């Protein structure tokens, strides 16, 4: 019947007369609004550059004129003695690992409640979504500062783990909820039809199907947490960040330089490691000859202790004569076993290494409501207009200015890095590598170095965040260019257009909506990062630290509310734009 | 006619009670009527085929039998359980005795074949299972037994996505059989398969139904397959019961009449089904 419908609809058309050429539709109010938002953003970026007094020429002059000071004080970099360095690295990695593990383990149930196909009802779904939105909105620093007051400043490791863990829930929970909604629902129906209860089918079908994504998001978040942990060191989270902050306070610039190098190398290694694990996870059993250590193991196993079953109609038996119900110890099982064993061992080692204070955790959970109640009601003591609002604006300005700066560099880099837009494959590869290098370098660490060189000034923050924006934006732009429909480009090229014409009329037009969405997302990222710059004396983050240090709970809550409002407004704008330009 | 015939057969085979009864079942999805006042009984230990085009209500009817869908009005009684008013606990209990297989197999592709089969037993186990190692040995041995039965014992430890479509459907059958069901529901079991795999799967279902004395309700859209394989053919069209025949006494000519009854769209029906479309088309041009 369905196949007949188009014909039925077609029939009267042939009898009617010619239709008048339709007028070009007037652009919808939403499209105008998006253009307005975009232009406001550019204007805001320009205004921020002027208002913050950012002059790249001056920066260059400063660096050149201060070159002697820089070479004298920063070079050669100093490193702490090896044992101490190893201890610091292990502490940082332990905290980052536990924070990520904590966030992943908490995110899975939250995502299950937030996803439409696994939730138990409208109320639990909305609650889970609100938790995710709140965790996404609040930057790490906000959680850390609240937790300093909850756990006490002496429990840095706990503060770091819970603060980064909670703020990770926002990202990991949201991504997992999306993954759960995309999961094939057939197997769930099959288990329900067999009488499986809710948690049975959720575990056996949904969680199992998103397992690769759980690991991938966890690894991705671990990268981010490693970077953020450096700045949390300034508020007492132990590890490399704290050591760096101590070196800064005592003006041991060469030591600052040494720590910076260590952290950067660590970030790059982490990126490489997580990339390697992700590739390993994504690869499915291709049936071909496996290479590497696992392949060797597989071949050894097959010739000695593994005997593949051959009879389809009889169950294989073990040497003892029982029905074999577990896979043999082939390379795959050995890998899975050691993967899980390594994860559990690492978790215990990390807990042991960071010396978690369970007593404090248990005691403070009891007086948690008491501490929270001290945050209310918020009060500005009459300084809002004169001090806190300008600080908030400054943070927003840092975000906008860095976005503008980053944008100008990121767009061409992204275009050249896309294989279908770059003049040659080699150029694309070169720019891809440039992006990877740019992303591997932690921008918050760069901010520290720039503060050392340029002084405590917004310029350092803007340049650092611009650098970070280049990495992320260029990657996103290049990816969306590569995802664009090449048939359109072929069609335009077939009409005689040259490479540049094709790029602008076929490729750019297709990618523009995605790019606009990426830019707004980047603004969101930059604002959150800008609050973290408070540890370097910039913007509202600094007032947050000050209020925390003086135990002014009412000011803290006021500032936190302000930050949350801005983040949520940015989020709403970016949601709206994504909806319109899709 | 349908009722009298099945009642007669039930007494003839001496079975304890009718396996499945549907009384005045109507199912409404928003403003689409998927099932319209269906009355039907399924006798035990027979292979029943629901024949019809996609959208005729076959899958919806099947899902009423084990309570995956609840009727908007009417009554469904399966193996003595009143499905239309059963709560979650009662439904779970019923579903242990009703196996189901699907057009797209519905296996967890990243899971091993053996564990996929074990998940069929979840209805009789308490609590979630995090992996193959969490199932009792007894269940795993049963699963191996069923895999041997469908001829896939050698694939037990491979991932489900390493199998071909026909093999996947056989795994799904093993998953249904581990429940030791009394009723097997099959929703277009061969629609996604090539002719050779289709024959294998249909023969397997037929043999197993005989060996285990199963009541099978299977939806299909190919008349030839239905004719060869079934005891009884029920035609559905637009959510209505349009035909109900014992298929053993059916000639090929009659089979084509059946095909006409369920699958060929008449002129009147186009008029009947598409006036709203004609209306839309008219508006566009006015």
**CATH superfamily (homologous) name of the largest domain in chain A:** MetI-like
What's the number of extended β-strand segments of chain A? 0
Percent of residues of chain A in helical segments?
Answer: over 70%
Strand order of the largest sheet of chain B: 6-7-8-3-9-10
SSE string of chain A: HHHHHHHHHHHHHHHHHHHHHHHH
CATH topology of the largest domain in chain A: MetI-like fold
- CATH homologous superfamily placement of the domain at 2-97 and 218-285 in chain B: P-loop containing nucleotide triphosphate hydrolases
Shape of chain B: globular
CA radius of gyration of chain B is 20 Å
Separation, N- and C-terminal Cα atoms of chain A: 33 Å
Q: Count interface residues per chain for the largest interface.
A: A-B, 53 and 76 residues
CATH C-level category of the domain at 2-97 and 218-285 in chain B = Alpha Beta
Taken from the alpha-carbon principal axes, the silhouette of chain A is globular
> What pattern of helices and strands is seen along the backbone of chain B?
HEEEHEEHEHHHEHEHEEHHH
Strand pairing plus helix content of chain A: what structural class?
A: mainly alpha
């Amino acid at each position: 019947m369905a196949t007949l419908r188009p014909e039925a609809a077609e029939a009267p058309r042939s009898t009617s007369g010619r239709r008048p050429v339709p007028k070009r539709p007037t652009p919808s109010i939403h499209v105008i609004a998006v253009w307005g938002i975009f232009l406001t953003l550019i204007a805001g970026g320009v205004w921020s550059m002027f208002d913050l007094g950012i002059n790249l020429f001056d920066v260059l002059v400063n660096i050149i004129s201060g070159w002697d000071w820089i070479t004298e004080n920063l070079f050669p970099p100093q490193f702490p003695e090896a044992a101490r360095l190893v201890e610091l690295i292990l502490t940082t990695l332990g905290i980052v690992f536990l924070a990520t593990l904590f966030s992943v383990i908490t995110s899975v149930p939250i995502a299950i409640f937030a996803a439409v196909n696994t939730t138990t009802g409208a109320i639990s779904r909305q609650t889970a979504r609100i938790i995710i939105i709140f965790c996404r909105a609040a930057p790490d620093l906000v959680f850390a500062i609240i937790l300093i007051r909850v756990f006490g400043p002496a429990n840095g490791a706990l503060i770091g783990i819970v603060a980064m863990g909670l703020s990770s829930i926002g990202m990991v929970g949201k991504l997992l909820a999306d993954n759960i909604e995309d999961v094939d629902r057939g197997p769930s129906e099959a288990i329900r039809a067999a009488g499986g209860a809710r948690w049975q089918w959720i575990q056996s079908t949904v969680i199992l199907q998103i397992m690769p994504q759980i690991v991938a998001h966890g690894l991705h978040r671990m990268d981010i947490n490693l970077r953020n942990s450096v700045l949390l060191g300034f508020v007492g989270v132990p590890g490399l960040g704290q050591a760096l902050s101590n070196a800064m306070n005592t003006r041991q610039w060469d030591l600052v330089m040494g720590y910076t190098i260590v952290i950067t190398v660590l970030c790059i290694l982490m990126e490489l490691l997580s990339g390697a694990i992700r590739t390993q996870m994504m690869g499915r059993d291709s049936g071909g000859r496996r290479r590497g250590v696992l392949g060797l193991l597989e071949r050894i196993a097959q010739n000695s202790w593994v005997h593949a079953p051959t009879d389809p109609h009889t169950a294989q038996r073990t040497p003892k004569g029982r029905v074999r119900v577990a896979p043999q110890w082939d390379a795959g099982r050995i890998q899975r076993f050691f993967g899980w064993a390594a994860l559990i061992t690492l978790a215990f080692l990390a807990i042991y290494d960071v010396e978690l204070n369970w007593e404090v955790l248990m005691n403070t959970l009891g007086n948690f409501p008491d501490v929270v109640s001290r945050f209310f009601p918020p009060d500005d003591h009459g300084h809002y207009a004169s001090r806190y609002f300008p600080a908030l604006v400054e943070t927003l300005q840092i975000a906008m200015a860095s976005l503008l700066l980053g944008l100008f560099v990121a767009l061409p880099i992204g275009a050249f890095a896309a294989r279908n837009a770059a003049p040659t494959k080699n150029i694309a590869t070169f720019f891809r590598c440039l992006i990877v290098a740019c992303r591997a370098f932690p921008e918050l660490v760069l901010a520290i170095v720039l503060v050392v060189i340029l002084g405590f000034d917004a310029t350092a923050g803007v340049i650092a965040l611009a650098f970070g924006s280049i990495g992320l934006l260029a990657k996103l732009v290049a990816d969306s260019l590569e995802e664009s429909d090449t048939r359109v480009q072929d069609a335009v090229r077939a009409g005689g257009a040259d490479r540049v014409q094709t790029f602008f009329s076929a490729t750019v037009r297709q990618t523009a909506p995605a790019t606009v969405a990426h830019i707004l997302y980047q603004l969101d990222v930059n604002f959150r990062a800008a609050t973290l710059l408070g540890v370097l004396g910039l913007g509202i983050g600094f007032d947050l630290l000050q209020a925390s240090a003086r135990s002014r709970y009412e000011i803290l809550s006021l500032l936190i509310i302000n930050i949350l409002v801005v983040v949520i407004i940015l989020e709403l704008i970016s949601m709206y734009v994504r909806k319109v330009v899709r | 006619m349908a009722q009298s015939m099945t009642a007669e057969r039930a007494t003839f085979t001496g079975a304890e009670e009718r396996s499945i009864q549907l009384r005045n079942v109507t199912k409404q999805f928003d403003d689409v009527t998927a099932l319209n006042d269906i009355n039907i009984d399924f006798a035990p230990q027979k292979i029943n085929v629901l024949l019809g085009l996609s959208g005729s209500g076959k899958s919806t009817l099947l899902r009423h039998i084990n309570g995956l869908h609840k009727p908007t009005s009417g009554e469904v009684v399966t193996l003595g359980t009143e499905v239309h008013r059963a709560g979650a606990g009662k439904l779970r209990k019923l579903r242990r005795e009703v196996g189901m297989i699907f057009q797209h197999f519905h296996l967890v592709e990243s899971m091993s074949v053996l564990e996929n089969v074990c998940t069929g037993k979840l209805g009789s186990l308490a609590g979630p299972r995090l992996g193959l190692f969490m199932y009792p040995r007894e269940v795993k041995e049963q699963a191996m037994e069923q895999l041997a039965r469908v001829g896939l014992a050698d694939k037990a430890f491979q991932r489900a996505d390493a199998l071909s479509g026909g093999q996947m459907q056989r795994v799904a059958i093993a998953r249904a059989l581990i429940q030791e069901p009394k009723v097997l529901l099959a929703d277009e079991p061969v629609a996604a398969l090539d002719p050779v795999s289709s024959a294998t799967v249909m023969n397997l279902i037929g043999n197993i139904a005989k060996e285990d004395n199963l009541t099978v309700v299977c939806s299909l859209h190919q008349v030839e397959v239905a004719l060869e394989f079934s005891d009884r053919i029920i035609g559905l069209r637009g959510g209505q019961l349009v035909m109900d025949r014992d298929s053993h006494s059916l000639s090929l000519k009659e089979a084509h009449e059946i095909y006409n009854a369920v699958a060929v769209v008449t002129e009147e029906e186009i008029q009947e089904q598409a006036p709203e479309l004609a209306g839309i088309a008219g508006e566009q041009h006015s």
